[in-house]
Amino acid sequence: MKLAIIVLLLINAQSCTSSQVERENFRVIAHRGASAYLPENTLEATAMAHAFGPDFLECDLQLTKDNIPMVLHDRSLESTTNVSEVFPKRHRDDGRYYAIDFSWEEIQKLRVFERRRGEVLAFPGRFPEQSAPQLRVPSFAEWIELIEGMNESRGVQVGIYVEVKASPAYTNEGRDILAIVLEVLREYGYEDKTDKVFLQSFDPVDLIRAKEEFNTKIPLIQLIGMNEWPGAPADYVHMITEEGLQKVAEYAVGIGPFYRLLYDIDSKGRPQATLLSKTAKQLGLEIHPFTHRSDQLWEGFQSNDELLKFVVKTLGVHGVFTDHSDHVIQFFK
After folding, report:
1. Is 149 domain-assigned?
2. What is the residue range of 284's domain?
């Protein structure tokens, strides 16, 4: 009986050690903060995610009319704010309210709510709009300062993972969003804190410029989407080939692929890894797929636990963007 107990204890200890090692080598990236629980990219969602204990907090960056970088995913404001109520006549001919047409002072008059696709909630069951407090769009500087303040008060070191958005569109407006974002990162010392920051973009031009023109030491992540997505700035079909990934490895330390590029579904409905993760790892690239959501599981998976086992053990990726960072952290315990 005593021997059986000892054996069980040893098995449990080995299991805990294995899980601990896996967690230490896996980057939990809080996608737009705790976006499963509070409207995305707000300071409130950022603070909540920080308390969960992820490795990195992620945000998207757009520009105001007066060149203030702000934490906002879309180029336009109507999907996540009440801009049409506050400034009903400020849309362009296509009916959209572009952030670049509004000053920072005007942006501060808007209220942020859960993402909508037209009149339909993108994620039904998340934070109810009728309960929303006065959530607003934060500036990039405010976002950084909140994270650094919480790092100090909580005695932890959560890193930042930032995305430059829509560079070609800003170039057409006579703005260089990449230069502005890199300047803010330099001001806050992230050129010297390279283990606590990633800069990501779907556009390889951004990342090559960051490395070659701006000589940044900040680690760069090439996001990889689908060619059929509107405005795709690169040939992603070629990018995920061995030749394409070799090119990526010349300027980036890793890739952030759309999750569906990492696996196929076989004839029996079972997920099977593609060659992407194996090829990327052979080239020394980190792999951070997007986006894990417990309330919208990836195709082919019946439970969150099943999905995360596939991500961690079968794909062997180095991290994941997640709306539910608390669930991913709990998976390792």
Report:
1. no
2. 219-310+326-333
